[in-house]
Write a structure and sequence with these properties.
10 helices; 21 strands
């Protein structure tokens, strides 16, 4: 049985397993019908022109884990930002691990989406925010919506500055021959509230995994959201990450995406402006090799005046790796005084590495400052020669140039311990000891 048919046939059994109210039933039923009509995306769709999922979908994925699996903290400690205290929402093969987690209801909610969907005290928030900005048309988002039940639920009340970061980590144990997991996160950041969130999907074994993740983030008036995605998985893992962010007046939301591992990674990042004086930041570093494939698809929809957006993506591609950057800035007629910047820079270290770049601007307002740019090239041979003349070995010189290329994004990380972690991962990817800490 093909995966599409398996998912459709599993939908009724899924709803029977969970306590679902009529409103959620209607949302899920509509979503599974949409997925049934559209199926998995193919390269015939413009948005997926450079990324094919056909090789992944041949696996016989388990839709639900056959049994509950547990892991020891010592086995996964290295994946946490353990240098600092954090709230933690941890899942193992899609199932919440209370042993590894550190949740709270003390002045804020850092807990489970399944609880929020089923308990009356969260009813108002769910009705107001759940599935309100996630696409009703994008097939993998609708597939996630149909099976949405478990993930992180974060609700930061008005004027609350969360004193420590929140880590959301999804572990795959490899106990299943092949596993499909579909986490759903809902983040609500109240007026004048501040939060930092770190998200990671990590396989612990080489069995194939397909993660189809959806996150909805609501930044209310004057809210500050600082979101980091660490993607350094095994090369048997595949990730489709759909993130939707709605911003109200004077809010500031940033998403940093660091992609180093995995087989096929697709990041869909969508920002929607719903007020004035909004600032949106989208930044990413991708360093991949072998036959890895990473696709960044971004959208910033400027619908209101006096707002800013800044995109800056850096790709370093080696061997037979493929990178894709498809970034779109959409400025509606009413969005006067918009300042939108988009930049994508790429270094190809191999003749067989490929980058497909498609920066786009659609502007219907006449009083705006908008720009986009893309560069594709190799390392500067003159700079390499200069450094080698001064006693720096070729390997280290090459690594320093690549680190300098990435540094503009690294410098904007606001959590010092995370900045150190990302620096060390980059050094490992480049195969050198950079010899300094940040």
């Amino acid at each position: 049985m093909e995966l599409k048919e398996k998912l459709i046939s599993s939908f009724m059994a899924f709803e029977e397993k969970i306590d679902v109210n009529s409103d959620l039933h209607d949302i899920r039923t509509s979503a599974i019908k949409n997925f049934e009509n559209k199926g998995f995306p193919t390269k015939k769709e413009e948005a997926w022109k450079y990324t094919s999922l056909s090789s992944i979908l041949k696996n016989d994925f388990s839709v639900f884990p056959k049994h509950e699996n547990s892991i020891e903290f010592s086995d996964v400690k290295k994946y946490f930002i353990h240098e600092i205290d954090t709230y933690k929402v941890i899942f193992v093969d899609g199932i919440f691990s209370s042993f590894l987690s550190s949740t709270t209801h003390d002045g804020l909610d850092v807990c489970l989406l399944s609880s929020a969907l089923s308990k009356p005290k969260y009813k108002q928030a769910i009705e107001e925010y759940f599935n309100k900005i996630a696409s009703k048309d994008e097939s993998l988002t609708t597939l996630n919506t149909a099976f949405a039940n478990e993930g992180a639920y974060i609700n930061i009340p008005k004027s609350k500055a969360v004193e420590k970061p929140i880590e959301i980590i999804y572990f795959s144990t490899g106990k299943e021959n092949a596993l499909l997991v579909q986490p759903r996160n809902l983040v609500i950041v109240g007026e004048n509230a501040h939060v930092q969130i770190i998200e990671r999907h990590q396989s612990l074994y080489e069995n194939p995994v397909l993660t189809n993740s959806v996150t909805e983030v609501f930044a209310l008036k004057n809210a500050l959201v600082d979101y980091y995605k660490i993607q350094n998985d095994l090369q048997s893992a595949n990730l489709v990450d759909n993130t939707y962010i709605a911003q109200k007046d004077d809010s500031n939301a940033s998403v940093h995406t660091f992609t180093f591992g995995g087989n096929i990674t697709r990041n869909n990042l969508n920002f929607y402006h719903q007020g004035e004086h909004i600032e949106s930041t989208l930044k990413g570093i991708t360093i991949i090799g072998d036959k890895q494939h990473v696709d960044h698809y971004t959208l910033v929809q400027h619908t209101t005046p006096n707002c800013e957006s800044h995109q800056n993506y850096k790709n370093i591609l080696n061997d037979n790796a493929t990178g894709v950057f498809n970034g779109k800035i959409f400025v509606e007629k009413e969005a006067q005084k918009t300042n939108a910047f988009q930049q994508n820079n790429n270094i190809l270290l191999s003749d067989k590495a490929t980058i497909n770049a498609k920066p786009q601007l659609e502007i219907f307002a006449d009083d705006v400052k908008c720009s986009h740019g893309c560069t594709i090239g190799q390392l500067d041979e003159n700079a390499m020669f200069y450094m080698q003349q001064r006693g720096i070995p070729k390997k280290e010189a090459k690594a320093l140039l690549m680190y300098a290329f990435s540094n503009e994004v690294i410098e904007s990380i606001k959590i010092p311990e995370l900045k150190q972690r990302i620096t060390k991962i980059i050094a490992m990817k480049l195969g050198v000891n950079l010899g300094f800490d940040l």
